[in-house]
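Section 5: illustrative case.
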């Protein structure tokens, strides 16, 4: 065999080398339903197998008011909890600035230093972004997104990215919706695609042409679909992706291509 052209793969996490479960930091902003599912999944693995390949070691929230449920979730699971309100952070510095500018990016990086120190102190291997609504400059993160990121536009770019992905997919005439998990980079939903969920059929109360002319109704329809997608999409593939990484099954090649068990999955792994 000519090994000159062999693909060299690097696992996202190597359990054999680490010799311990993968340490996970759970980051959230709102209700924390994705983080709840991640913790419940860890518990089920313990009950089924006697152990879990990953362990959530602390919960971090960028909200400090009552709308964020992080403290309650952490208390229920006997985990350390830290909140660092990003709105107060920006308010004390003259207001939020876009990370597309050097000043805005530097400000965001300064905010992330608190989380960076926590990740180092707790020896975290991976950050799980479960409904974390802020741009993050830390590396080693898995995010879940309410769209099929394998769908591309005419220029080869991901078609449904950003906060309005469900609405855009409905307006784009998609008959089914899917959720995706990805390894984050510094772009918007542009990192390597890891896993794609089962489909959720799009069910419209009126024809699409009518829906386009009624923004209020469109908003309600998109919100209802996104909530339903969480149940069969986000809540299933988010913890499953973390588990597969912790078992050493996901790898990257030198160009950032994604592999599962040594086989390429360019459109995301689908069970």
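Designed sequence:
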């Amino acid at each position: 065999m000519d090994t000159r052209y062999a693909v060299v793969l690097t696992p996202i996490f190597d359990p054999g080398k680490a010799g311990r479960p993968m340490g996970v930091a759970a980051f959230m902003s709102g209700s924390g339903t994705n983080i709840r599912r991640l913790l419940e999944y860890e518990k089920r693995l313990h009950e089924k197998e006697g152990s879990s390949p990953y362990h959530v070691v602390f919960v971090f929230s960028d909200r400090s008011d009552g709308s964020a449920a992080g403290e309650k979730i952490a208390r229920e699971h006997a985990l350390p909890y830290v909140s660092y309100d990003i709105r107060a952070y920006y308010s004390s510095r003259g207001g939020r600035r876009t990370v597309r500018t050097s000043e805005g990016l530097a400000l965001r990086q300064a905010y992330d230093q608190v989380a960076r120190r926590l990740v180092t102190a707790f020896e975290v291997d991976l950050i799980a972004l479960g409904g974390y609504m802020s741009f993050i400059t830390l590396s080693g993160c898995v995010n879940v997104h309410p769209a099929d990121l394998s769908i591309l536009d005419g220029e080869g770019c991901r078609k449904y990215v950003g906060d309005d992905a469900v609405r855009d997919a409905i307006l784009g005439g998609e008959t089914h919706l899917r959720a995706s998990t990805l390894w984050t980079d510094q772009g918007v939903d542009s990192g390597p695609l890891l896993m794609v969920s089962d489909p959720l059929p799009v069910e419209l109360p009126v024809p699409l042409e009518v829906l386009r002319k009624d923004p209020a109704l469109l908003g309600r329809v998109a919100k209802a679909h996104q909530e339903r997608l969480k149940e069969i999409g986000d809540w299933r593939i988010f913890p499953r992706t973390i588990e597969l990484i912790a078992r050493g099954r996901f790898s990257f090649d030198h160009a950032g291509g994604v592999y599962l068990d040594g086989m390429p999955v360019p459109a995301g792994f689908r069970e």
